[in-house]
Amino acid sequence: MTNLKIEFYLRLILIISLVAIISAYFIEYVLGHQPCNLCLIERIPYGLCIILITLNYFFKKKEKLIILLLILIFFFSFTISIYHLGIEQGLFKESGVCGLKDMTGIISKDEILKQLQEKTVSCKDVTFRIFGLSLTSINILLSLILVTLLTKIYISYEKNK
Hints:
The protein has helices at about 5-30, 35-40, 45-55, 65-90, 110-115, 135-155, 155-160; strands at about 130, 135. By secondary structure, the chain is mostly helical.
């Protein structure tokens, strides 16, 4: 790893996470591509990353712990994305997560029937691609890069401080 400070890498990871979240919402709300439930779950690590790196600016003494948490978060992201890709490629069956909807606000049977009639996006359907890659494939690559980078930062933490 070069002699760049940890702050630079954390800012870079923060920017990557912001771009990932903004891109996901742009694709959903501006371009009109509905995400499946696993796609929504794959956004969570980026949101957590933004929160943790922001907290890092207030609690500098916990920086090494925050880096370790980020490694775990992006490893989770990598794992979920691999599973999602397996569903897209037909290697795994869709799980119950793929068909779940938010039922917390439903009170009447009419609302339940209305929601059951709505079309849900299947986890195996790829509705958007960039350079021929599904967003899940891109998330696998990005998560793997971030886990690798964060692991290198963690291992050489004292040297690069």
